[in-house]
Queue: 4 jobs
Job 1
Amino acid sequence: MSSVPYEARVNVALEAIQKDQNLSIRAAAKIYGVSDRTIRRRRDGSAARHDTVPNSRKLTQLEEEVIVQYVIELCTRSFPPRLRGVEDMANQLLRTRDASAVGKNWASNFVRRRPELRMRFSRKYDYQRAKCEDPKVISELFALVWNVKAKYGILDEDTYNFDETGFMMGIIFACMVVTTSDGRGKAKLAQPGNREWATVIQGVNAQGWAIPPFIILAAQYHLANWYTESNLPADWMITTTDNGWTTNEVGLDWIKHFDKHTASRTKGTHRLLILDGHESHHSTIFELYCKEHNIVTLCMPSHSSHYLQPLDVGCFGPMKKAYGRQIEDLMRAHITHVSKVEFLRAFREAFFTSMTEKNIQGRFMGAGLVPHDQERVLLWLCFLTRSVSMSSSSDIFQTRCTDTDSNTYPTPFDLS
């Protein structure tokens, strides 16, 4: 009998007592080799230790399983969360039942006792290592995109990319200028004095249309003349933060903005949203909203956005050049300070100049995403690697600065 597990013997003893009214607890305990106190506790409703949750556990077993599945799902989409992300998810679950938040060490302890999870350092992405690993990383990414689209039945028409880019309101981008033939040194172009920062979050669809821009200005309050004097379309969104940068809350506002303008145009059941790994782009509240609204997010590998994200492949560069030309025109009109209204007017013109159907479709094609064509990117990667090995870094830097603005890289679309 001693070879039978202890809890199994306790259960058998309880069954024997229920069947035989004359069998005492003490006698049953002696027969089955268990403690009579244990039998009494089980009879009175106390659970076995392995069936109970310690008092130190904040979450139920089901809630912990939800978090584990959440982490696993993020990892499959190249979004391994930080401990803070795991903590945020736990607190989201606790808020639904008005429970207090977890402690500062809860997330690390949780990961440590869950066999499915572990903590690892994310390594830096060295350029020499990138040259060797990029083809493998790119192939794995395209396989992931293909598998995700197949799993959820996502159509090319429901494929989106979004990213954000910053504008220093009064800065003119480098460009070719005409000077006197006897001029010495580099030509200098006077810049308006305003260096205030603004951020634009932009989404585009593979079929060639753009979601209304989401503009973040550095301010405490909205001013009426932003809307009355800038001539912005009614569906464009303006929000404010202290420094003009994005936050997790702004990220949530943007995904709601995205959903509002894409839900009615969805052809299938799910939408694919390709993005980078910025924290505000995959916060817990961001991911939960996406899950509730059938939006599947997919993260690009580090240091790859300049050839894998359509917006970086060729939309933001032309937009910033067009914006710089608008600011240059203001300067020639003797406007030496770019106000927010003037920024909005200039950005509006730059947006409509660069965000054309042909340009957006071409950039999805250049990134190999729609239509699906990883060979285009791999061919370009081999070309770039070969060019790097044949040229000095200073020559390449000079070529890039001469031919393009500082935010634009050669792309597979350019090679075609």
Note: The beta strands are 159-168, 197-205, 214-218, 237-241, 271-275, 295-299.
Job 2
Amino acid sequence: MRSIFLTIVAFLLVACASVVPPRPPLDAVAERFVKLTLEIGEREEGYVDAYHGPPEWAAAAKANTRSVEALASPWFAPFLMRASRRSN
């Protein structure tokens, strides 16, 4: 009986000790998305209906003169890589 109890305690300690790797903060992902959307809105009339965020983000979007291809490449490159691997 004692060995069963010790085994259960050992399993519980091992289960509690496992470390889950941290996920990227959602705020950082949301910030990248909003900034990208603002930049697209500078090139596509009517894309951004209203914006009530930090004014410096909107100013940075106006000042940034990246092309549409440059805006799309960091976001779509991982998807394109996966698609090309599947087609081979």
Note: The mean pLDDT is 81.
Job 3
Amino acid sequence: LTPMQRGTVGTANLNQLLQETLNPEGQGLRRGGFLFKSRDKVMQIKNNYDKEVFNGDIGVIDSVNMEDRELTVIFDDRAVTYDVSELDELVLAYAATIHKAQGAEYPVVVMPVLMNHFVMLQRNLIYTGITRAKKILVMVGTRKALGYAVRNLTVTDRNTMLKHRLRRVLPEDAAVPESPQETAVHITAGEKTSHEEWLKQDLTERLSRSKFRSRFQLTEGDRRYIAEKGMDAIKKHAAEIIRQRLSPAEPKNDGSQTPMRGAPKGHPVFIAQHATATCCRGCLYKWHGIPEGRELTEKEQEYIVDVLMKWIQRQVQAV
């Protein structure tokens, strides 16, 4: 895992060097600057709902057919075939950026930490890389670079609601310091209530009172897509979308990464996300009470998928 794509210890150069060392033999298909050969480790970089593979999925090339110009990748014991025109969806995965690894874990991680990528040497990024390793972490670099990263704080403020959480467990007469800039979250829905009280109200009722949320509906194209794929496949898609787009502590382009379009060019789950306020981390906190600034737990991801599937089920049954 490395902070950057470019440079001597960026993913592009490391992937080429590691491929030459670990898998030097054999013919392959060339596309987008990569040579894909049998036994190469690859990563899917785009969601492909037809093939049911998603951004960040890692597999191994099982075979390359030079005559038909196609190859087969094994993802978790499932074979997926790509023709040469679809290889833009794959990259070599001997090395990956720390950003791409958010939400994933590996038994062993080797992470270069050098001043070559000082622009990306930030405490939160290094922390993310370190915590990807389940058993062994090997850091290769200099003390100077590591020290620079540890001292480089790019995120200083966290809205944790800690004071309000402490009030739940402390005695009623315990003194709780007031913030110099006290800001309570209030929602107007007939009457003003605290955020905590508002969250206790039925989610469906709260969503129905929002003109923005209630305007989202599944189209005929969405319903046909769901009928063709089946609810089990849609649920799997939803789980992958949440894992890839929302589970990281700092999702890429958070707030704008969920398209407002359904099938065929988008996905019904995107519409469901906007309808249920699960489209970004800010909405997850405001509407569901799930804090920002940390990775989603498995239970939180399961909860979000359950909310999405209940909304989709109601939409399908309403016809």
Note: The first helix runs from residue 11 to 22.
Job 4
Amino acid sequence: MGNGRSTSSKRKLRSHSVAEGDSHAPPGDPLTHSQPSDGEKCSDPGNIDATPPNPPRPLPKKRKKVVLVLQDGSKAEEPDVIEPIIEKPQPEKTQMGLAYEEIVLLIPQALSDGTQRVTIKLCDADFKTTLDLIHETIGCKDVARKPELSYKLSNASAKAPTFNLRVEGDWEGCLESVEQAEAGKKKGGTALSVPVMIIVPEIYLLSLRSCTSKRKAPQTASSVGGKRGWKKAPALIDLDNDYSDDLGDDDGRDDDDLLEREQKMLESLENTLSTCQKCGPSLYCKIDKSGQHVALSMNQRRGWAMSLALNTHGVTLHSPPKSPLFSAFHGVGSTPTSITPTSQPVPQTPVSPAPMSDMWGMAFPSMLAMMMNNRMSLVNHSSMVAPLPSTTRDPLPIPSSDPPAPEGGLYPSIADFLTSLIAQYPKHFTEDRLIGEEFKMSAGNARFLLKEVKDEMKRIARAKGKRQ
């Protein structure tokens, strides 16, 4: 009985894979070469004589496979036991770059002395959208002329320079500056937001307030009754016209390009006008409506060339512009007696005896008539030049074949210059601006005209230097 129970217990132990360290296993038993499983013990409640196995050894991270022999004689492999890998918690990374995925702008307003705080999400912060939002906050969305913007970070010093904000590249540079500033400004490991101050010229805000309220800027005084105590109000900007500033960098390049085109057109025009078989190549001849040959002056040729350079409608190398200078070629009812050959320069006096208002009165009626689209009658061209001798004098001799003498004046007439000026700036001079008390001009237009006169003199001087 005892041997039978012992044999039965041993068979049961074999089925449970208790082999290694079992002193009762018979020699040659294949189970003696198998490895015990993890934590597996030899336990049989019916086997009293069974010897407990040796204590298990420490398990490696990965061991060999164990073959199990079941009661029915089949074998099975125990799966590998791999020690699980426990991931250590990683420390939270500090957020670098722009904080909270937003950017804060401090924008001044024209209707108040305060500054508006505006928050923009970076996903919506493209340059065009941001620029429209800035203009809307300032209050200049509905005016023609927009301000020249610049910016500075709020943590910058008072003496730190400002940066332009005109093109998309400037806006990208602003975002990079904010990112660098926020990366270096932390509190508790978190990046803090750095607002951006939008800077608008003070004269623009003052002009916008005056334009919005329809009131002139008041004068300030430190004392009453004394001239020294009064401060002159600054000159306001004309916001109704979108032309570049007086100190713009593009003006010089545009003027040079226009001067170059004018010079090319002048050469082509003179080559065309010098092909007259009757007058010869020495005169720049043009046949008027009455069939007479008229030698064009330098002022007329330059005015014609300027219109060609500006691509004026209806002006070609054979068709002059419709201006008072060429009324003999376009005007209705012109007669040969009313035409003076321009090869004979009109006498000019160094100082005009007429007052300043008379000079403007002679120049602006023609310009006003052109801008009103022929709604007013044109001023007679003869009223814009110096008085001529009596028409009863002997007819002038036919121009000789010699080259024409140098012109008496270096600069063109006011009417010729204003004609080209209107073509360049058709929106600057409007009907309501020109209809005024004295000169029919506003203060802004007067300053603009004086500036253009000076620029025209410089362009003529440069052109004369190139021709020489």
Note: Residues 99-207 form a domain with the Ubiquitin-like (UB roll) fold (CATH 3.10.20).
